[in-house]
Request: fold
Amino acid sequence: MKINQWHTEIDTVTQLFVDNFQSLTESELNWKPKADVWSVAQNINHLMVINATYYPVIQKIRAGNYALPWHGHVGWLVRWFGGVILKSVGPDRNRKMKTFPIWEPSKSDLSGSILHEFKGHQEDLKQLMNSCADLIAANTVICSPANRSIVYTLETAFDIMVAHEQRHLQQAIEINQARLI
Reply:
């Protein structure tokens, strides 16, 4: 199962966030080159916001009251959606993407403790993955928390989360480099 691989990738990206941004002040973490570009802190906040939207989905599955739309039972469609989303959120940032409104980061300045909060969030995410081993093994299908029309397996959801974190690490590094110019 991929859980150990995900844990390794999460630990790596977490450490890279810390290594790259721990010396920044609160104002440096919140610096933006222009209004429509996210700060380093907003990139981190966005990851915590998006990952947390999967928790209620898993709670509903565990409670036995999670209902998939009809197309969530069509294997090729589940695989297609999963592949498309996974490819779109990877670390290759050749194409800019707009996020769903529920996943927008905070518009206000964020606390200088955002890295500490992120580290705790990452540990919680790894525990969630551990607790879902049975659901992953059962090829559980879920809807995207942002759009019920988008369906993929829970395993793919975790792949998406990990790849998405790598994408936003790269974005945050680019923002910080722009700040230094």
